[in-house]
Predict the structure.
Amino acid sequence: MFRWSARVWFALMVVAVCGLIGGGMVIQEMFRISPCPLCIFQRLLYVVVGVFALVGVLLPVWPRVWATAVALVSLGGLATAGYQSWMQAFPHLAPECSYTDPNLIERLVDWLGMQWPALFMATGFCASRDWEFLGLSIANWSVVAFAGFSALAIWLIRRR
């Protein structure tokens, strides 16, 4: 398994990203969950991870370059999901999204929501825990997923 080529690992990342985005949209529709700006930003970061991984499958000449790109985006996603998890754990300390002047992330999410509302429309609150599985919220699971992508990408960078 560890002897698989980088293309196989990138292909597995693409499949995982498609599953995470598709699963998130199914959960959103089934349970009538309104995603918040940080949720949508994480969805965007999953798309970017998937695009870099797909490029790694299609152009396997520079696997370390694509793995580095995946690692950087995944670490950004890990930070975003970690911040949202903190907001959900301590809602009384967290400044709620959309209650202050919109920051760069919220402006980007608003613009994307106007372009592709089915995929990027944010109408929820960041500190709410609308759905849980095994005691973890979607943001907590996103921390796990981004940590996994980061670890795999760093492993691909260091591997010979």
